[in-house]
């Protein structure tokens, strides 16, 4: 979204999960600091025109802001940290339904197998079993306080963006997450935006920066 927002031309190289680490290692990308072993290398990763390689969304956004300061992502806005603080209150309760549905509905066979195995190691059981034990409609009730707090933050400046009429990186954090819900299962998307009409207004206002994810 940040690349589209800034109007920076780019090409996308789609990579299956098992190939992420080998591909980035071959490019000389240093691993993440102190993550679980399966997350030493993560996407998105961007190679800039001068061959600088940056891994993960927020460092990429910071580099984009330096190279292309206008329009600004407003990375220094306190709203960014507020959204980062609130988002786990939405996502963590929903993990038992989001993660099992991700490989089932989105991934090709190589990535499907990798995702299933690494998450089996993470949770100590297959994702289907994890979903049976921890999932269900109650997870939306558990996430409701997070949605309510996030909606309240959006309403502070009357939307559709966290900064009112000015889009920022804070919006992209939340909207990219809601977009993930939509790609997994439209029912998840509809459930999420139904918490408050301002979520749909924000999503729709950001739609033009989600129309293109590859070129």
Fold and architecture overview:
The mean pLDDT is 94. The protein starts with a helix and ends in a 10-residue tail after the last helix. A hairpin with a 5-residue loop joins strand 1 (45-47) and strand 2 (53-55). The protein has ten helices and two strands. Helices cover 60% and strands 3% of the residues. It has a two-stranded antiparallel sheet. By secondary structure, it is mostly helical. Helix 4 (78-106) crosses helix 6 (127-134) and helix 8 crosses helix 9.
Question: Topology of this structure?
Answer:
Layout lengths: L1 H5 L10 H10 L18 E3 L5 E3 L1 H11 L10 H29 L2 H15 L3 H8 L3 H18 L13 H16 L1 H8 L3 H9 L10
Antiparallel strand pairs: 1-2
Helix pairs in contact: 4-5, 4-6, 4-7, 4-8, 8-9
What's the arrangement of strands in the largest beta sheet?
1-2
Average residue pLDDT = 94
Low-confidence stretches: none
Class of secondary structure makeup = mainly alpha
What can be said about this structure in brief?
The chain is mostly helical and 215 residues long.
Keywords, please?
single chain; 215 residues; mainly alpha; two-stranded antiparallel ribbon; 10 helices
